[in-house]
């Protein structure tokens, strides 16, 4: 049985990967999808070109991995593609996010890094020459980001892990691609917080286009998939400009945002 495995499949980029995989890999027998919201996965099954096998569960808990391992041992599938798409982010300073919820940032690290690594290790024994791993990183991985510090750090882990894993698996003929988009118009921002940054609004991409690019780049065996000229320019730019200067620009933007909020709330200088 030839399968693909997709995490975070109930929404956003993960959902889009499921919808497009059937067009890129027509010899798949099933796509095994993992996410918490079972009803969303059942709705997706009605739209997918490839039959779905649903594993509803929380990737921060052991139960879903146990169910997957049992299914792997029973079915002995050939995993042709693993898409690690599950993850989330939260904007704000480290202190602000901690004040909102002390668990948010540890959970971010747990899901974005630990769960991705655990799923990869679980699937690798069932992968063979020509299999692909697609890890959802982010353009945030290119440089530390004030007001997005933990999220950017987790995506730097994903990018570094993907590159090193690619080198380690080259002898087995298994290819790893890290997908590094800028802002994508998905439910991600319902959790992270909608942005009023005009730069991010201008560079906002549509999920179908980002996923289409990612699948083409994976099929071509590329190390990175970066959608759009602005993000490709950003990738080149962070290699030329010292990170301290880039973070300085981010700090200025953060200060301007705080001033706008104070003026809006009537707490700025000269207000009573």
Q: Please, could you describe this protein's structure?
A:
The protein is of the alpha/beta class. The chain is built from eleven helices and seven strands. It has a seven-stranded parallel β-sheet with strand order 3-2-1-4-5-6-7, with helices on both faces. β5 (127-136), α6 (149-169) and β6 form a beta-alpha-beta unit. The N and C termini lie far apart (70 Å).
Number of helices: 11
Helix content: 40-55%
Q: Structural class of the helices, strands and pairings?
A: alpha/beta
Radius of gyration: 20 Å
| Strand percent estimate | 15-25%
Shape: globular
Query: Can you write the helix and strand succession as a string?
Result: EHEHEHEHHEHEHHHEHH
Query: What is the overall pLDDT average?
Result: 87
Write down how many β-strands occur, each being a DSSP E stretch of 2 or more residues.
Answer: 7
* Biggest beta sheet attributes: 7 strands, parallel
> Span between N and C termini?
70 Å
What topology, given as strand order, has the largest sheet?
3-2-1-4-5-6-7
Spans of at least 5 consecutive residues with low confidence: 267-272
Compact overview of the structure:
The protein is α/β, with parallel strands linked by helices. Helix content is 51%, strand content 15%.
List the keywords.
272 residues, alpha/beta, 7-stranded parallel β-sheet, 11 helices
Strand-helix topology:
Elements: E1 2-7, H1 12-24, E2 30-35, H2 38-45, E3 52-56, H3 62-75, E4 78-84, H4 94-100, H5 104-123, E5 127-136, H6 149-169, E6 175-179, H7 188-192, H8 198-203, H9 207-219, E7 224-225, H10 229-238, H11 243-265
Parallel strand pairs: 1-2, 1-4, 2-3, 4-5, 5-6, 6-7
Helix pairs in contact: 1-9, 5-6
